[in-house]
Amino acid sequence: MDKELLVEFGKRIKALREVKGLKQREMAEIMGLTLRHYQRFEYGEVNTPITVLNFFADYFGVTADYLLGRDKR
Predict the structure, then answer these.
(1) Distances in Å between the alpha carbon of 26 and those of 8, 17, 32, 68, 70?
(2) Quick count: other Cβ atoms within 10 Å of Cβ 62?
């Protein structure tokens, strides 16, 4: 598994969350997750399921390619 991909994904969702002015705890609540579970996505500690990837893309109004670092927009 490519750890760099997970870290880049985490950086992007963190930046998008911060643009919306949300704290990690608030994002976890929106997603129905524990804080620690959400943090594992941002810290690049866990491979993200496709359903979660889809949620992030829809919620933040970006493409999955952007979240994965394949697209700069």
Answers:
(1) 21, 10, 10, 23, 27
(2) 16
The torsion angles phi and psi of 42, rounded to 5 degrees, stand at -65, -35
- pTM (2 d.p.): 0.90
Burial class (CB in 10 A: 0-12, 13-18, 19+), 23: exposed
Q: How many domains does the chain have?
A: 1
Write out pLDDT tens, residues 12-62.
999 999 999 999 999 999 999 999 999 999 999 999 999 999 999 999 999
DSSP notation for 25-36: HHHHHHHT--HH
50 within some domain: yes
Residues 43, 10 contacting (CB under 8 angstroms): yes
CB atoms within 10 A of CB 28: 18
